[in-house]
Design a protein that fits this description.
It contains five helices and two strands. With 135 residues, it is mostly helical. Strands 1-2 form a two-stranded antiparallel sheet.
């Protein structure tokens, strides 16, 4: 299951449990043998970076300088470490990385040239963000 930005984890779990309980009540066997729900595995509140457009603007400028193309947004229902910085440390964070295929799959791989360019764009982002100047 995924928790959408407009939901919270506790309410989402409750909604699913209510649906299961309702469906079971309408089943001849499950009505007399109600299922129980056990929550296991990774669970976290949803996260969307808000009010930090300037972070993306600086990153987009660095990306365009290196790649010669606009930075494309990719929204995901998966999780990433930026959620922990944003939710629990109050630190704005984006996920930015190389071109890849089958992330977390058995044949996960990245484009090595894009790793080089991402490294350059990240260095430019840090220099701009921290206010460094050419000597």
């Amino acid at each position: 299951m995924g928790v959408l930005p407009t939901q919270n984890l506790k309410e989402c779990r409750q909604e699913i449990e209510d649906l299961i309980r309702h469906a079971a009540a309408n089943d001849p066997f499950l009505g007399n043998n109600p299922p129980t729900v056990t929550w296991e595995g990774f669970q976290a509140e949803p996260f969307v970076l808000k009010n930090h457009e300037h972070v993306r603007v600086v990153l987009a400028q660095a990306h365009k300088t290196v790649f010669g193309a606009a930075l494309e947004d990719k929204t995901s229902t998966g999780t990433a470490d930026n959620r922990f910085f944003g939710l629990y440390a109050g630190i704005p964070a984006l996920v930015y990385g190389p071109e890849s295929d089958d992330i977390h799959g058995f044949d996960e791989r990245v484009n090595l040239e894009s790793v080089r360019k991402i490294t350059q764009a990240t260095a430019l982002f840090i220099a701009e963000w921290c206010g460094l100047e050419k000597s």
